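User: I'm putting together a teaching handout on how sequence relates to shape, and I'd like one worked example. Could you take GMC family oxidoreductase N-terminal domain-containing protein from Massilia hydrophila, show the sequence you're using, and then write out its predicted structure as tokens right after it?

Assistant: Happy to. First the sequence, then the structure tokens directly below it.
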Amino acid sequence: MKLSYDAIVVGTGPGGASSARTLARAGARVLVLEQGSAAPLAGTLGQMAGMALPGRGAWLHRDASLLVAGATLGGSSALNFATAADPPPAMFAAHGIDLAPHLAALRAELPLAPLPDSLVGPMAARIMAAARAAGFAWNKLDKMIRPEACRSGCWRCVYGCPFGAKWSARDFVDEACRQGAALRDRSRVRRVLLEGGRAVGVEYVQAGATQVAHAPLVVLAGGGIGSPRLLHASGLGPRHASFFSDPVVAVMGGVDDLDGGAEVPMAAGASFPERGIALADLTLPAPMYAAFALQAGRIGRLGAHRHTLSVMVKIRDEIGGSIGPRWVDKRLTPGDRARLAEGIGMARAILRQAGARRVFATHHFAAHPGGSVPIGGQLDGKTGVDSELRAVHGLYVCDASVIPQPWGLPPTLTLLALGRRLGERLSSGAAFR
């Protein structure tokens, strides 16, 4: 059976979901393909682990550090901490991209604001007071959370919110489907189909059977790891692609006079863009805390979850390493290690101010792979539609892989804006309007 559409979107993270919704709103017949499951979020450890197992939603670096992502409807937005940040305008202006109108439109419709005080947990509040006393400009962060549906004392943000409180890209996919888009989950795209220098569709596997779908527009939104792999499998990209990953460590310390452990993480923090460092509170569910304590060799702290303050240290790392067909490899550079060391020192100062003892830092992990198919590199810069692959008409990329420089920021809002912009440009003057 030959399936034909106006556009095919591969991946349902923020970039793919936003472009699919915009195209469907314009009247396009859109096919949305997602490798993971569209099963409702249950907010359980078991479901979350299934979305983020190494080799599925996550990967192990060769140095054994973990690169976390989500293979599910909504991509990593289903599992992230719902923190939003505007993109640096100059980074995109250098490529002729103005995201301001799209950001304004998104901010007008999304649940996007700092948490009310009633939803800031006791651990985040203690860290905020200590950080300010230590001289840090520590402020609440924008969260993509519906306060009226959010529950104090809840820990399910990172497991996949089952209460509808946390916004995820699933919301935009749902709207695209209401506008007529077709969604096929558990569908792994193998390659892009090409004819005469044009994209004409994709080949994918669903329920063990190979399927082919045709469209004159194909948007790859498989993520910072998935999209370069798809391009290579289609004969369009290098075998190995370099990338950034936004390495993170957690700095933890015990306090005897606080009993908590269940709250929204990253309620507040501080950013030092000139140094490439960002800090935030990072209260995690007990099993994840235990994994970090074990990773750091702190067996004696396994039972101290309810009495442990945790500060996230995230850095803007240098682009490098390699994404291969079946593995990723990215070591920290001396500059990356220096930034982490500086951030860990800041976190230790905050925890000392908070009265924490037995402070330790975890091994690094990473959560925002990108920059692997950058605008201005494999993608057009100021000419044409800047998300189009060079020399291949009708093939576009819209996920964290297109970010043109090292990042260090939560990418969700930026990818939503890029997806909205791409969808509008593709639908402008198209035959399906």
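A couple of points you could highlight for students: Residues 334-353 form the longest helix (20 residues). The CA atoms of residues 219 and 396 lie 5 Å apart.
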